[in-house]
Design brief:
Elements: H1 6-14, E1 33-43, E2 48-59, E3 77-83, E4 89-95, H2 98-102, E5 113-122, E6 128-135, E7 141-149, E8 157-158, E9 167-171, E10 180-187, H3 194-209, E11 221-226, H4 266-272, E12 280-285, E13 292-295, E14 299-303, H5 309-322, E15 329-330, E16 349-350, H6 365-368, E17 386-389, E18 391-398, H7 415-429
Parallel strand pairs: 2-8, 10-11, 10-12, 12-14, 15-18
Antiparallel strand pairs: 1-2, 1-5, 3-4, 3-6, 6-7, 9-11, 13-14, 16-18, 17-18
Helix pairs in contact: 1-7, 3-5
Length: about 425
């Protein structure tokens, strides 16, 4: 947004992280390998189950090496690696899942389904235990699953000899161990369309790094484009009866929502990346149909040839990288998506239940006395507490009248989103 107050935006970049998270590395300070853990999450709107599918490993560790025993964001679930003997936390990560989204659908009231979920952990040097927990919208645990991991287990599949797909670094700031590594994966591009994919991936990188705070922290990121080849060009569109053979079997109409484009095949996705350093994933779909999706610490998937490609990929990366909530809303849908009794863990919306933990400190004195803030087209740069966000028109509030997390037309993340992004980047790298 051209009328953003520059000073406020810059100030947001410089604020220190919330919570005094420890900087000390856990016991496994210099892991040499990655442990990949594949699960099946299953259930319906009333119950959930977690089952271990397989363990894999591959050389190197591209994940964070600071604040390894804590998380900055709560998420809708978390995975924790502990030393089996001392129970010391070696690594912890939060996440959200497509499975939990599905649980809120009408289909989940009459059907039980399973979803693939994959997580990356530093390989422990000795026996360890892994705990996975899922939470409801009230941030209460709904299911917990713990299992042992022995790094000497002969049935941990070694992926070091898997085929290395064609790839190219588009933005390289340093070694994977020191940077935030983002893999951009081709979906629906044939082998003959690899040059097209690399050009599209470069557009995505340019779009992300043109937005603050990514621009400010560009030297803390690596972006690698992975040209996974599909048999068919384009992606599946069930509404039109078009099913295509693609690398990740993605499709529109996820949960019967026409524009929601996802892949249910997380293992195929991670198998493609086994020999390439990565922490975060962007999938580019070779189609001009509008749509996409972003799941916190899972992946972003968006269409590369729609006219809104660049703002959409930035928006969706805001979801998958930083857990930012959608700030748009509807008048008659998702009435109970967020509970009025619970403060959302997402940093850019609030129910006012614990507003002091959000952007209360950024409010001008006059604005702080009159909450909620009345929209004013003459004061688009005024930070406030505007009703409507997180899909709900009532009871959920956002900081700006417009933001990259609200519309494709807005030119920037608002200062509150910028601060949330900055805190997370610093958490990962300092």
């Amino acid at each position: 947004m051209s009328r953003f107050i520059q000073a406020l935006a810059l100030a947001a970049l410089c604020l220190t992280p919330q919570a005094n998270a420890p900087k000390a590395l856990a016991q496994n300070a210099a892991p040499q390998r990655t442990l990949r853990v594949d699960y099946d999450f299953s259930g319906n709107n009333k119950q959930q189950h977690i089952a271990l599918s397989q363990l894999c490993s591959f050389s190197g560790w591209a994940g964070r090496r600071t604040h390894t025993d804590s998380v900055l964001l709560h998420g809708n679930g978390d995975i924790t690696l502990r030393d089996a003997a001392t129970h010391r936390v070696l690594y912890k990560q939060s996440f959200s899942t497509l499975f939990q989204e599905w649980q809120s659908t009408e289909e989940a009231t009459r059907l039980t389904r399973s979803f693939e979920n994959t997580f990356l952990l530093p390989m422990p040097t000795d026996s360890a235990e892994v705990t996975v927990q899922l939470y409801n919208m009230q941030q209460q645990p709904t299911v917990s699953f713990t299992h042992k991991v022995d790094p000497r287990d002969i049935l941990i599949r070694n992926l070091d000899n898997t085929p290395l797909p064609p790839h190219r670094y588009l933005h390289h700031s340093g070694s994977a161990e020191q940077k935030i590594d983002v893999a951009i994966v081709a979906e629906g591009y044939t082998a003959q369309q690899s040059d097209l994919f690399y050009a599209d991936a470069q557009k995505a990188v340019n779009a992300i790094l043109s937005h603050e705070p990514f621009k400010h922290y560009a030297n803390r990121f690596n972006f690698v484009a992975v040209a996974a080849a599909s048999t068919d060009s384009d992606v599946s569109v069930p509404l039109e009866g078009k099913w295509r053979n693609t690398a990740l079997s993605s499709h529109f109409s996820t949960f019967y929502s026409d524009r929601y484009l996802t892949t249910l095949h997380q293992r195929d996705l991670h198998n493609l990346l086994a020999r390439i350093p990565y922490e975060h994933i962007i999938i580019l779909a070779n189609t001009n149909t509008y749509g996409g999706g972003g799941i916190y610490n899972a992946y972003t998937l968006t269409t590369a040839h729609h006219s809104k490609f660049e703002p959409v990929v930035v928006h969706e990366f805001g979801h998958s990288f930083a857990g930012l909530a959608d700030e748009y809303y509807y008048d008659d849908q998702y009435e109970n998506y967020y509970s009025p009794d619970t403060e959302p863990w997402e940093q850019n919306i609030t129910t006012l239940r614990n507003f002091s933990a959000k952007w209360q400190d950024l409010l001008p004195a006059k604005v702080a006395k009159n909450i909620p803030t009345a929209p004013n087209p003459k004061k688009l740069d005024q930070i406030g507490v505007y009703e409507g966000g997180g899909y709900m028109s009532k009871g959920v509030y956002r900081a700006y009248q417009d933001c990259r997390m609200k519309t494709n037309e807005c030119k920037a993340f608002c200062p509150v989103c910028q601060r949330a992004l900055s805190r997370l980047i610093e958490f990962y790298t300092e």
